[in-house]
Design a protein that fits this description.
Uridine Diphospho-n-acetylenolpyruvylglucosamine Reductase, domain 2; Uridine Diphospho-n-acetylenolpyruvylglucosamine Reductase, domain 3; Vanillyl-alcohol Oxidase, Chain A, domain 3; six-stranded antiparallel beta sheet; five-stranded antiparallel beta sheet; 24 strands; 12% strand
């Protein structure tokens, strides 16, 4: 904390009566903002979410007058502890307007909460983009980028955020507003610009006069201590105020991390997109060899030069890793991804081949691959974008952390830096995964520091001090991209010297004499080993849990350390994760927000009710359990499992929500309804449906699905009897070169859509399989798992696995038609039943229809369906199983497939049927999927294997979606 005394409750009252936005000291809200993407945790005193720029101005004034510390926050993805503590003002929710784009001037005017991909998407319509393109572009805000002088992969060609600033409108803590533009150079009077600013009246002129006096006094010191290296992000960029740099105050403020002024609006330059790009992937034996290659490539003016290594690639999901190799990742243990631009594809390729030619003539051992296909390029770029999260776990599960995360040295000294850094790591018995912007000498690292013990923290400090001295000796910067924050501000005295740091303090006092703007960052720094996030009580919690968490040392607490705050779940569009955030734009409904609340629940000082926490329950209420985070989150946060775990404990020995009894026990009610389905359908379709929905916790807007007249088991029994008595008996059945296959009769297929099961049997038999069902009533337990009734789920699942046991032990494959049920066998069952042999066998012997046919009937020729299909991939299939086999099967069937980037359909099992969820459920579907279905031609097949997906499409559009089995069966020749 800052030590500045003020009346928090009184300030909340004044803010509440003045702002159109919100101001709260609620523990649950404060818990969401305790951490960013760094190793640090500081509980904020309150959180303010202004409604617009005027609200932001009013908030800053009131908070400053109260003497309270002010911390501006965008996406909260700062990696150095730059945006935590004090009164947090979140500008990302509402201050996100792109005020103007001028394609002729190539500029844009933006509010500080504008997300970078929203700006680049809007600029792309004019063939333009913003030069500093971060790997976190889908959630990074321009205000945060300006504060940290963010760089991105294209900075080697297009510069940093500061290099692309045209002007800033800022607010000082005393209420002064300043409109700062980049200098206009007058060769006749080069000092005229600075003199004109100094002549301005009031506080603004006073600041300019004082700044110019400081620069005049210390110009020699600044010239000597501030190198021309572009990735020198640390400290205040005093060199931008020198006469030779035109006294550029706007660009000087970029990188000051909100410690001097608050950004209200920014005018930024846009750059022209190249006519074409190709990606040159270069492979090396190690990262040092890759670094040695940099001086040979830079003269060719590449757009990017990004590095990754095998330690990161090995942590990618297997399907992504295979995809990277197929996309063109050459052999090696470290790689450079070099993007080359040109006026057209041939021009870009010529540039890339010139690089290859130069490398061939060198003594470097390098492999290469020229990747021209945009989809293949995207696969390789994903390896780099996800590195921030992937690097947080070693391949053996040991945790790795930032802290020495983004130092930079002159590119020609990068090889020397990496060699000596390896020696320091070895001396401390540490290891790390690295990636970075090699074209500018910037290396990102996650290192297996022990940040949980006092001894480990002492080692952490020792390592960082030695590494900082190495960087300074090589003429580098302790921060090459993410700013100083709490992680590196203390190191500035080692980098610049005490005399320069004294100037920083003087500049801070000039701009912010009350010391309220992001205190203890850059000036008057906090110690780098104070406020480390995981030093509290949470790490010592030993909990008895329903799931086993084998990937996290069987510890729920360690599982909650997976989220390091990179915030990919806050992406503005695309992907499966996180549908509730994409609809609401509220932090507590993001995967990260929920993870932070669960961690704070374990910490126990803000959220004090443990498993009974209402704050955690409410945040999880809008979690669709889509599992998108399991695959889309770089660190594989599994919020669906955490939600089930929480509900299991939260409602232990308590009355549950009505939906847990109605939809949670759906398998039982479906079996009972099968006795008289017509009567049940008549009841649920009558006027009694209103009280029935109310009693069952079902959304009134939803139609209750109708039960089939006959169950799948009954239909298949009749089918078998018909074959045996009407056409020559058993001899008329096809031979079974594929052998026996077990068809899993999930509840949805068995009682609500048996026609899907019939179609699957027809396809399997055509492929030469003998299809059998497991004996007795079976269920995977999905509905009990999703509602946190884990005791029941465990009993149901164990009993069902016993019915499969003889088949599993014999190696007989099981085909599932409902992706969510299949995902239980592949993901939940082994952790819900640890040590159960049948659960382990089922994990490797359960398949989708497409996977089974590809694995066991590779010679079978599918029927030629032809035509176009719009396919909604079930979110659990996306997260756990993958879609490659389905895509290949449909291609073999002559189907042209379009898979919209729609994420979860929004229904998500019981979620979309529960009272209070309909609006979010429908909004999730309306993001992409439902409009795409409505826009599809009547000749286009709508394919969705998930019962929930088909239900959402069927209830919200006039189209009839089909399961892939139905599509294939419809084209089979009649027997």
């Amino acid at each position: 904390m800052t030590g500045l005394p003020y009346d928090v409750r009184g300030l909340i009252g004044r803010l509440g009566s003045t702002l159109r936005g919100t101001a709260t000291g609620d523990p649950g809200v404060r818990a969401l903002y305790c951490a960013d993407a760094s190793n640090y945790r500081v509980v904020p005193d309150l959180v303010v979410v202004p409604a617009d720029v005027d609200d932001l101005v009013a908030a800053v004034m009131l908070i400053s007058q109260a003497g309270a510390p002010i911390v501006l926050r965008g996406a909260g993805t700062s990696m150095a502890g730059n945006a935590i503590g004090g009164v947090v003002i979140d500008v990302s929710r509402h201050l996100n307007t792109i005020v103007d784009i001028d394609p002729a001037a190539r500029t844009a005017v933006v509010e500080p909460g504008v997300v970078l991909t929203d700006l680049t998407g809007a600029a792309a319509a004019y063939g333009l983009t913003f030069g500093a393109d971060l790997s976190s572009a889908s959630r990074a805000t321009l205000g945060g980028m300006i504060a940290n002088n963010a760089c991105g992969s294209h900075s080697v060609a297009w510069g940093t955020t500061a290099d692309n600033l045209r002007g800033l409108e800022v607010l000082l803590s005393d209420g002064t507003r300043m409109d700062l533009a980049t200098p206009i150079h007058d060769p006749v009077d080069p000092d005229g610009w600075a003199r004109g600013l100094a002549a301005r009246p009031g506080r603004e002129g006073e600041i300019h006069r004082a700044l110019q006096a400081i620069v005049a006094r210390d110009s020699l010191l600044i010239s000597r201590r501030f190198s021309g290296m572009r990735r020198r992000i640390s400290g205040y960029a005093l060199d931008r105020l020198l006469p030779g740099h035109g006294y550029d105050v706007a660009r000087f403020l970029s990188g000051t991390e909100g410690s001097l002024a608050v950004t209200l609006r920014a005018t930024v330059n846009l750059v022209e997109l190249p006519g074409a790009t190709v990606l040159l992937a270069l492979g090396f034996n190690d990262s040092v060899a890759a670094a040695d290659c940099v001086p040979l490539v830079l003269p060719h003016s590449p757009l990017t030069m990004e590095s990754i290594n095998a330690a990161l690639v090995d942590r990618l999901p297997e399907q992504v890793r295979r995809g990277a190799v197929a996309a063109g990742l050459p052999t090696g243990c470290a790689w450079l991804l070099v993007e080359v631009g040109g006026a057209d594809p041939h021009d870009a390729e010529r540039g890339a081949r010139a690089i290859i030619s130069d490398l061939d003539g060198s003594d470097l051992a390098v492999t290469s691959s020229l990747v021209t296909d945009p989809r293949a390029q995207e696969v390789l770029w994903r390896c780099r974008r996800d590195s921030t999260g992937l690097a947080t776990r070693r391949s053996d599960g040991v945790e790795a952390w930032g802290g020495w995360e983004d130092a930079a040295v002159p590119p020609e000294r990068l090889g020397a830096y990496l060699r000596e850094l390896d020696e320091i790591l070895a001396a401390h018995a540490l290891s790390g995964a690295s990636y970075g912007h090699f074209g500018e000498g910037c290396m990102h690292m996650r290192i297996d520091f022990d940040l949980l013990s006092e001894r480990g923290l002492a080692q952490y400090r020792s390592f960082v001090e030695q590494a900082a001295d190495l960087v300074v000796r090589l003429g580098g910067s302790v921060s090459g991209e993410h700013g100083d924050g709490r992680a590196r501000s203390e190191l500035l005295v080692r980098m610049y010297g005490a005399d320069v740091v004294a100037v920083f303090d003087e500049v801070k006092a000039l701009w912010d004499p009350a010391g309220v703007l992001n205190p203890h960052v850059i000036a008057n720094p906090a110690h780098l080993d104070v406020d480390i996030r995981h030093r509290g009580k949470a790490k010592d919690r030993e909990l008895v849990t329903g799931f086993s968490y084998p990937q996290d040392a069987n510890s729920f607490a360690q599982a909650q350390r997976r989220c390091v705050g990179v915030g990919k779940c806050r992406q503005s569009s695309g992907g499966v994760m996180c549908p509730s955030y994409q609809v609401t734009k509220e932090e507590k409904y993001s995967t990260r927000g929920r993870a932070h609340l669960l961690w704070e629940m374990l910490e126990g000082d803000l959220i004090t009710d443990g498993w009974r926490s209402a704050e955690v329950r409410d945040a999880l209420d809008l979690c669709l359990s889509c599992k998108g985070c399991l695959s889309d989150c770089p660190v594989n946060v599994d919020m669906a499992t955490y939600k089930s775990e929480f509900l299991y404990h939260h409602y232990a020995r308590r009355l549950r929500p009505a939906s847990h009894y109605s939809m949670g026990w759906l398998p039982l009610w479906s079996s009972l309804a099968a006795v008289a389905p017509a009567a049940v359908n008549a009841l649920t379709g009558s006027a009694l449906q209103v009280p029935l929905k109310r009693a069952g916790g079902i959304a009134p807007e939803r139609s209750i699905p109708r039960f089939a007249p006959r169950s799948l088991r009954s239909l298949l029994r009749s089918r078998a009897e018909s074959q045996n008595h009407g056409g020559g008996g058993q001899e008329s059945r096809p031979t079974s070169p594929g052998g026996t296959v077990v068809l899993w009769p999930d509840t949805f297929t068995s009682h609500l859509a048996p026609e899907v099961g019939e179609a699957a049997v027809a396809v399997l038999e055509d492929a030469g399989f003998e299809v059998v069902l497991p004996r007795g009533p079976v269920c995977c337990g999905l509905t009990w798992i999703s509602t946190g009734q884990l005791g029941v789920a465990r009993r149901v699942l164990r009993r069902s696995l016993r019915s499969l046991d003889e088949y599993l032990r014999a190696g007989v494959p099981v085909v599932g038609l409902e992706p969510s049920c299949l995902a239980v066998f592949r993901h939940e069952a082994p952790t819900l039943l640890p040590g159960d042999e049948s659960a382990q066998l089922a994990k490797g012997l359960t398949f989708t229809l497409a996977e089974l046919l590809a694995t066991y009937a590779a010679d079978w020729t599918p029927p030629q369906v032809g035509g176009d299909a719009l396919v909604q991939t079930h979110c659990h299939q996306h997260a756990v199983i993958g879609f490659e086999a389905d895509r290949a099967l449909m291609k073999a069937a002559g189907i042209s497939v379009t898979v919209p980037d729609s994420g979860c359909c929004g229904l998500a099992g019981n979620f979309g049927f529960e009272r209070g969820h309909y609006e979010v459920s429908r909004a999730a579907g309306e993001r992409v999927l439902l409009p795409a279905v409505r826009a599809a031609s009547c000749d286009t097949l709508i394919v969705a294997d998930g019962f929930s997906c088909r239900t959402q499409i069927g209830q919200e559009t006039d189209r009839l979606p089909l399961h892939l089995a139905q599509v294939l069966a419809s084209a089979l020749p009649r027997r």
